């Protein structure tokens, strides 16, 4: 109600003052950000662009009452990204079934998982040219692109997804 009435300070106080269930976090996060965006747009007298919204998000981070505190990178949580990296290290071309299992294990959609693998392969090809996907000549072990996280497992087979709530493949 405070949002629709434009009483943003009341909204912020409410969102910062009470702990909400994780199920409510996405909606409340959206309210928090939209309220800050609207305030900034009113002050500036023009709509915010992508950079303006980014600056607002940095200036007014989500309160812990509506956020689990896990860092995100490109909208993916670090835990999800590390699972994708582990799989990519062993198997840069997962099957559709494996992509669905990865999606279930990471909380992403199958499309997001597919796009992550496609983009990762494309970036590696661009960075390393014709050597991809056979080997990465500039990496320590010849199997992963430079700068990628060190694998936490032996790569005879991709890791099982049971540690993240997904099933075995």
UniProtKB/TrEMBL annotation:
On the tree of life, the source organism's domain of life is: Eukaryota
Which Gene3D superfamilies did the record assign?
A: Homeodomain-like (1.10.10.60)
Swiss-Prot/TrEMBL keywords: Activator, Apoptosis, Developmental protein, DNA-binding, Homeobox, Nucleus, Repressor, Transcription, Transcription regulation
Q: Which Pfam families match?
A: Homeodomain, SIX1_SD
List the SMART domains hit by this protein, alphabetically: HOX
Q: Which GO terms describe its molecular function?
A: DNA-binding transcription factor activity, RNA polymerase II-specific; RNA polymerase II cis-regulatory region sequence-specific DNA binding
Q: What is this protein called?
A: Sine oculis homeobox homolog 1a
Where does it live in the cell?
Answer: Nucleus
Similarity-based family: Belongs to the SIX/Sine oculis homeobox family.
Q: Start and end of every Homeobox domain?
A: 67-127
InterPro entries found in the cross-reference section: HD, Homeobox_CS, Homeodomain-like_sf, SIX1_SD
- Give the UniProt entry's GO cellular component terms: nucleus; transcription regulator complex
What GO biological process terms does the UniProt entry carry, in alphabetical order?
apoptotic process; regulation of skeletal muscle cell proliferation; skeletal muscle fiber development
Ranges for region Disordered: 131-169
Q: What is its main location?
A: nucleus
According to the entry, DNA is bound by residues in 69-128
């Amino acid at each position: 109600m405070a949002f629709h009435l434009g009483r943003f300070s009341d909204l912020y106080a409410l969102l910062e003052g009470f702990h909400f269930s994780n199920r409510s976090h996405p909606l409340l996060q959206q309210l928090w950000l939209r309220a800050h965006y609207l305030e900034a747009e009113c002050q500036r007298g023009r709509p915010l662009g992508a950079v303006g919204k980014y600056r607002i998000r940095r200036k007014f981070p989500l309160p812990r009452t509506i956020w689990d505190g896990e860092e995100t990178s490109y909208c993916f949580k670090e835990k999800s990204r590390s699972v994708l990296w582990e799989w990519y290290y062993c198997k840069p071309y997962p099957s559709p079934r494996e992509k669905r299992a990865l999606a279930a294990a990471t909380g992403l959609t199958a499309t997001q998982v597919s796009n992550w693998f496609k983009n990762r392969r494309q970036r590696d090809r661009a960075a390393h040219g014709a050597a991809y996907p056979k080997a990465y000549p500039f990496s320590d072990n010849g199997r992963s692109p430079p700068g990628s996280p060190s694998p936490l497992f032996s790569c005879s087979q991709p890791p099982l997804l049971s540690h993240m709530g997904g099933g075995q493949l």
